[in-house]
Prior knowledge:
The protein has about 110 residues and is an all-beta fold. It is built from no helices and nine strands.
Amino acid sequence: SLEPGAVQWDGTYITVESIGVSSGVKVYRLSISGSSATIVRTIEFKNITGVAAASWIEGGRILIPYGTRGNHGTTNKIGVWKYPAGGKRLQKIMLQKHSDAQAVTFSPGT
């Protein structure tokens, strides 16, 4: 079953992120026609353990907060993946021990 996380526009498709499922985090790209939606692609993200929070898509990257199960699921890591490729994580950002990232945003550097 799908436990929805973030709903976003990626510049081409509406996306729905699935979180909190044993098979890991997936992003579904949807084609909308009238009042119907069709999944045109399912993107899987590797190297996520525990729980995940809402993602943020920016250009060719997606950031997903994630962390340990227990203690109400602390999301103290933020992973960066290629988007829409998915697959293996490119980078992991560690937060302080008791941090809990529920949303992320980023902007291009100067």
